[in-house]
Amino acid sequence: MLSELLVLPKGLKAPQWVAHAGLDPRPFESGTSVHKPRRLSKQGNVHLRAALFLPALVAIRRNAQIKACYEALLSRGKKPKVAVIAIMRKLLHCIWGILHHQHPFNPSLFHQQKITC
């Protein structure tokens, strides 16, 4: 995962990393069907998306804060796979923060940020 991330330009923000990974939700508007739910763009780096999927599943099982965030998404009516993808997105934000600010991972801050899907 680091080999895919460290080749990115230094000035990119976390949402740009998310877009590079293809984890950003894009509106689906075609013809008369303009009110469909958003979908993943999947236009980014497929290797990065694949590298985030299993760590997200393990983090949901093993980390209490991440599990609470996942369960909060499920209680808001999100489907399980959508919730896992939201966790993948948040993990990518955390990785960006760790590399950008040079601070270790603090799981207590994970659930405090708002997730929008």
Task: Describe the protein in words.
This protein is mostly helical and 117 residues long. It contains five helices and two strands; from the N terminus they run ααββααα. The protein has helices at 2-5, 14-21, 46-62, 64-75, 80-101; strands spanning 25-26, 39-40. The protein has a two-stranded antiparallel sheet with strand order 1-2. Helix 2 crosses helix 5 (80-101). The longest helix is centred in the C-terminal third of the chain and has 22 residues, at 80-101. The radius of gyration is 15 Å and the shape is globular. It starts with a helix and ends in a 16-residue tail after the last helix. The model has no long low-confidence stretch (mean pLDDT 83).
* Share of β-strand residues: under 5%
Which parts are unreliable, with pLDDT below 50 for 5 consecutive residues or more? none
Helix and strand run: HHEEHHH
Strand order of the largest sheet: 1-2
Mean pLDDT across every amino acid position? 83
> How far from one another are the termini?
23 Å
* Largest sheet, strands/sense/barrel: 2 strands, antiparallel
Multimeric organization: single chain
What's the helix count?
Answer: 5
Q: Per the principal axes of the C-alpha atoms, what is the gross shape?
A: globular
Say how many strands there are: 2
The helix/strand class is mainly alpha
Task: Describe, in short, the structure shown.
This protein has 117 residues and is mainly alpha-helical. The chain has helices at residues 2-5, 14-21, 46-62, 64-75, 80-101, and strands at residues 25-26, 39-40.
